[in-house]
Amino acid sequence: MKLRLITPAAALLLFCAGAAALAVEVQDLRSVPAITGDAQAGATKAALCVACHGPDGHSMVAAFPALAGQNATYNYQQMLQYQSGQRVSAVMAPFLASLSDADLRDIAAYFAAQAARPANAAASAQATETGRKLYVDGDPARGIPSCQGCHGVNGVGMQPAGPNDRVPWHSFPTLAGQQGDYVAQQLRAYKEGARGGTTSAVIMQEVAKTLDDAAMQAVAAYIAAH
Amino acid sequence: MKPLQYSPVSLAVATLLMAANTAQAADGSASARVGDLQYGNALDPGGFGAALMQRDLLGYSLLRAGVSRTPTGDLYTAPSPVPEDQGLGDWRYTNGLELGYITQTGDKDAQFFRQYSDWQNGFALSLAWLDMWKPETGDYLEARASYLSEDDNFLRLRVGRYGDFRVEAFYRNMPHTLTTTAFPLWEGIGSDTLTLPANLTPGNSTPADVKAASDAAARTTLRVTRTRAGVSLEGDMGRGFIGYGALTNEQRNGTRLWGGPFFFNYPFVNNGGVMETVRPIDFSTTDVSAGLRRAGKVWRFNTVYSGSFFRNRKTTFTYENPFVIAPVTGTPAAGILTEGQFSLDPNNDAHNLRVELGRTLPQRGDLSLTAALGTMRQNDPIGLNLNCAAPGQVGISGMPFVVNCADWNTPASLSRSTAQARIDTLLLDAKLSFHPTNTFGWHLELRRYDEDNKLRYQAFNPLTGDYGYITLNGSMGTVVPGEMGLFNPNNPAYWSYPAKIGSFPVGYTDTTAELGGDLQMGYRNTLNVTYTFRRYEPDFREVEYTNEHRIQIALTSRQFAGGTLRASYDYATRNGGDYNYFPYASFYAQSLPGFVMPDTANGEASLFAFTTDAMRKFDLSDRDQHKFRLIYTLPVGEATTLSATAHGQYNSYDTQIGRKGDNATGLTLAWDYQPMPRLTLNASASAAFSKMRWANVADNEGLVASDPGNADPTFGGPKYPLANVWNESDRERSLNANLQFTYQWSRTKLDGGYNLNDSRGRLRYDYASISAISATQQAFAATISQFPDTRYRTHSFDLGITQTLSKQWSARLFGRYEHGKFADWHYTGFDTALAYDHRVYTDRGPATDYDAGLVGLMFRYVP
Questions:
Q1: Is A8 helix (H, G, I), strand (E, B) or coil?
Q2: Residue A165 belongs to what domain range?
Q3: In chain A, which residues have their Cβ closer than 8 Å to the Cβ of B747?
Q4: Fewest Cβ atoms closer than 10 Å to its Cβ: which of A115, B245, B670, B859?
Q5: CB under 8 Å to B401, separation ≥6 — which residues?
């Protein structure tokens, strides 16, 4: 009789022990609505941003992301994540700490209203056929999906296919005019797990696992050239 | 933006990886060329460890929230996360195992509780697996194993390279418990020789002795275990050709209930012998196939040889008879019948060679041609009429109906020593289809299948000049004068006996022609209309042919009241040539020279009618058939799907005697609710009804003495009077209700279910007058109105809780409780006695009321 009681008791203890936290919170971005903001007000509020991200969001430093033409919703979500600490940056966190939700929306709307920077000759020269193929077709043999499936032709983003299209394309970043080094840096962060925590990041982590350094550089160079 | 609890272990579901895993899962299971299609056990029917896997709370897609549906509208259940793979050189792999302990409680030996599951108290391996793949080359290896008991386990290994080759090998055991309440009288259960216990004397025991021995018999379980093993391979042979082959062997071992006849008992109290014995099952079936196929842009080609080889290690079966078999004449028997015998399933071989050729045609057309040649052979030694030893005799002493054992217990007593049975088959099929427009297509198919049974066997004993086969181990001829089952034109005792002297070489030719068209009406509706003509030409049967005309109309609509409707209706009418109610005369002794027609009461020589001329066998009689099927699937909102399925088939036969009608109707309603990935609720209810009606007319038993040779087959005549007509109907009703739920917290999953099965059989009869019942049973028939209903009902409850313990470990505590009730009048009284007069049975039948359950604790470990 004692043995009969011990078995379920032990099982319950194990279950309780299993409740110990190993879980990782994943923020579900699949249903986030498209945001709106006052782009004109955002121009003023973004005054500090341009120091690093360049005038009108055209970053002059390869390691800093260009923000011009970026989807407002994506940009807004990233700023929220810096504020909450989910996305860690010692640089960004202090700048965003004092901004209100309205500020973030206005800033995001402002950068979204700017035209993405056209490719320069130097970037175009570094783009290779390998990068183009990876971006456009992926490499099924290596398990690499195409980038344009989510980021659109030439990185300008995707539009809903119709009223029944439930994919939140507005929450995915555009890549047109993005800094190549920044793209490569982020791909590495996804691969190493340094960037994550959202449903979108989960997708990118799995994509990045399929890319080696050469593939990252090739696709980053292609993006920088468009 | 409510945060979700999510483990990184389970986040391997990126879009492209999903596609890769789908390909992996589908690599071979869809191929019928592999030995077995489904591997699993009672703990894990799917064979992939679903019970211990948590669900992915992000649902079916990382791209978009909400539920996903099939094109028809059915809900996809949230998938389980794919285990995180690891590296080993150039290979990636996942592996793990699920094992634990199971304990049973209650009536664990109840037949229905363990019919197809060999539950054991003890440790069980639910699943162990290893999946390896090499992304650069497409090489893969997949291993699966399970072990619940010695008779319930499997092991499967697949290796291959995508697009190049695949090899699969497997080994498995599957249990089938037939009864857990067998009390066999005999010793040697499982062997081909059953002997009586020491306290019984073969051929000379009293009913009281037999009953005492039966009451003392030990309980045992009768079961058959199927052990299957095989290997299959498929590979690219170059130039677009793919070669494939498989070799599978199945061993079936165990025991099952069997008969043991020594003449009637009910009308002959304290005589005859009716026995329920236990025969051995010791089969081996080996299936081989080898083929070559190629699919080009224009031409397709496939040729395959398949062979099946059945072997029975026990082709004879003998059992000792405890009862005294005595002549009704009051004179002594010529010999004591101590042993009965059967010839068991013979060894046989089958070969088939199939060639298929296809070609694309203009107007999106396609032509496919198929030809297949087959042959089935069986050439085992033919069983001997008697196995009694010389100088013994069988029959009635002092009368001319005695046979010598020495004349019938030797191969020399047979017209040939082996069966030499052979059936050849030929299949020709041609199908032509075109789709000249986007909305219209049509097809024409012609098919002919011929089965030529070449067996011609005549039972003749060259030692005696007798034709026929000694009936019921010689007991017929021992009890009743002249009923040994033999014909001999030179022996007055046998020259008027209509012995069966040959086997019916049943074969047939089946010719069908089909013309059909499909019309797409708008984007969402498709209409199909098909006409089929079938001509069936059987050999040596009551009609030379039947013709059937069938029209089928099918509609698929994806805009029917917001749901998807699939509906079809068939009408078929069959009629045939002139009906010969008894076409088998050439296989009976009356067709032989020297047969002397017995004299009838009016002084004419004639042979009694075998059956009435009104009899129509259901597979050949004129028939009208209606069939329908409706399937409706309705998505309701985001989270609900309702579905309903109804089907029916109604046959009416144009006959006064024989099967008059049968029908089957079924209805299923289902409700699926999945408001979020963590919660699913499924409920369904179904009902199935069937009915069969038939009529017959009993022989006028009064003529047995006054006019035994009455040859008048007329329905309503003196031999088959209308007063002897009886009608019977058999109604079956089956109800099923099922409720399942699953709720998952971040690391805990609770699931459960309830299942009800309730089936009822109702046999009803009426008769024109009591003379429709055999005179020996009329008194009994008058005491009952109808047979009681048969009933089978089970309630089963399942509850399980699965807990993720760590990145590697999870555990599942589960229980099952089953309550069952069973009633079948065939087993009435067997709970107290299995022996009655000269009848002895073995199986007491399933438990009439049982409660059984089990509890298990399983652990899953994924390194």
A1: helix
A2: 121-224
A3: 18-19, 22-23
A4: A115
A5: B395, B477, B481, B482, B483, B484, B493
Cα Rg of chain A, angstroms: 21
Q: How far is CA B53 from the centre of its chain?
A: 34
Query: Among A113, A134, A169, where does a domain finish?
Result: A113
The answer as to whether A31 is a domain residue is no
**A16 in a structural domain:** no
Put simply, the answer to whether A28 touches B810 (Cβ < 8 Å) is no
**Which residue type is seen at B616?**
R
Q: Does A157 lie in the same domain as A76?
A: no
Instruction: Please answer yes or no on whether B16 and A166 come within 8 Å at the CB atom.
Output: no
Q: What is the pLDDT along chain A (226 residues), one digit of tens a residue?
A: 333 433 444 444 444 443 333 344 688 999 899 999 999 999 999 998 998 999 889 988 888 999 999 999 999 999 999 999 989 888 899 999 999 999 999 999 999 999 988 777 777 777 889 999 999 999 988 889 999 999 999 899 999 988 888 899 999 999 998 999 999 999 999 999 999 999 999 999 999 999 999 999 999 999 998 8
Residues A101 and A128 in one domain: no
B11·A203 Cβ contact <8 A = no
> How does DSSP assign B400-446, residue by residue?
S--EEGGGTSSGGGSSSSB--EEEEEEEEEEEEEE--SSSEEEEEEE
B58 to chain A, any CB pair closer than 8 A? The answer is yes
- Decide which of A57, A84, A113 is a domain's last residue: A113
Residue A22 and residue B804: Cβ atoms within 8 Å? yes
Q: Are residues A182 and A108 in the same domain?
A: no
What are the pLDDT digits (tens) for B348-391?
Answer: 999 999 999 999 999 999 999 999 999 999 999 999 999 999 89
Instruction: Confirm or reject contact between B24 and chain A (CB < 8 A).
Output: no
Our CA-based measurement puts residue B134 at a distance from the nearest CA of chain A, in whole angstroms, of 10
Residue numbers of B between 732 and 751 with CB closer than 8 Å to A: 746-748
Of A142, A144, A199, the CB nearest to B58: A199
Q: A207 — contact with chain B (CB < 8 Å)?
A: yes
**Cα separation of the two ends of chain B:** 33
How far is the C-alpha of B185 from the C-alpha of B213, rounded, in Å? 7
DSSP letters of B719-767? SB-GGGEEEEEEEEEEEEEEEEEEEE-SSEEEEEEEEEEEEEEEEEEEE
A77 vs chain B: nearest CA distance in angstroms?
11
Domains in chain A, number = 2
Residue A87 distance to chain B (closest CA, Å)? 15
Q: In this structure, what CATH number is given to the domain that contains residue A97? A: 1.10.760.10
- Decide if A137 touches B, using CB distance below 8 A: no
Residue A219: inside a domain, yes or no?
A: yes
Is A179 contained in some domain?
yes
Neighbours of B766 (CB within 10 A): 12
Same domain, A43 and A109: yes
Predicted structure pTM score: 0.86
Query: For B774, phi and psi rounded to 5 degrees?
Result: -55, 140
For B6, which of A19, A26, A138 is closest by C-beta distance? A26
A161 touches chain B (CB under 8 A): no
Chain B residue with the nearest C-alpha to that of A80: B1
Nearest to A30 among B3, B65, B746 (CB): B65
Residues A86 and A130 grouped into a single domain: no
pLDDT at residue number B40:
83
Shared-domain flag, residues A148 and A201? yes
